[in-house]
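Before our next group meeting I need something from you. Please put the record directly below this note.
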Amino acid sequence: MLQSLPDVMLLFILKLLVVLVFLVAFLRNPRPFWGVGLLTVATAFLLDTFLSTFGWETVQNSMGFFFYVLVGALAGAAAAWIWSLLRPVLGTQARAPVATMPATPSSAPLPRADGRNNLAFDRRELYDQIRERLGTEDMRDLAFDLQIHENDVFSPGYSATESIVRLMDVAEARGKSADLALAVERILTPIAAADLPRPEKLSPQSPPTVLRHYLLANMTQDELAALAGRLGIDWEQLGSSKREVARNLLLHLQRRSRLHELIAALQPEEAAEQDDA
């Protein structure tokens, strides 16, 4: 039964709106996820236009084998897009009893990364908190605080969502899920300099998290650069931001068993003179 002209126009406008929605989404967030979706709906729109204009049998007979290839590619692309849309939801379903992560005061001592914390947490809530409130530098700080190698979490082929899920999976596999929740709280509510250990209380065995927070709370980026210079390290190779310099400085010294040199450099002059005496 032939459709009336108004119905045909309305249907055409609705199809065009779908394509425009995907186009706007891709322009605002040019990721492969939206690129695949835009390519899929645009190709489907053009194919549907050809079928409506020339008829199904005419187009099928004209294209032959390639018609089925195109239809199969469209179905596969649509399935891949739907899977990409649902994967963050399916991959971050709570695997522990749902509970609200208790807030911790900023003056509380930093947790040890020993996997023995008893705090319950909601995996979905934690994922949303990281995704909505933390940036790339925050994510790298989280990996550092949990002693997770960045290559285990970040990759040029990973999207932000995939990196978050990967970080949570690695932390859970190593028994550090509760530590991750607390590390997120520490980044959102940094510890005040007055609540951190004094320099004379620091040691090479101090948690790297404590050392990172101490450097960030007590030193400017220029002071960090000068500190790296005193230790014989080219600070320009450590990064461009203060947080990146602090993190990479600690990693550089930790990998070379030179943290004791950093601790010595952080001591007040009076304490250093007493040690020399």
Residues 193-276 form one domain. Confidence is low (pLDDT under 50) at residues 91-120, 270-277. The chain has three domains: 5-91, 92-189, 193-276.
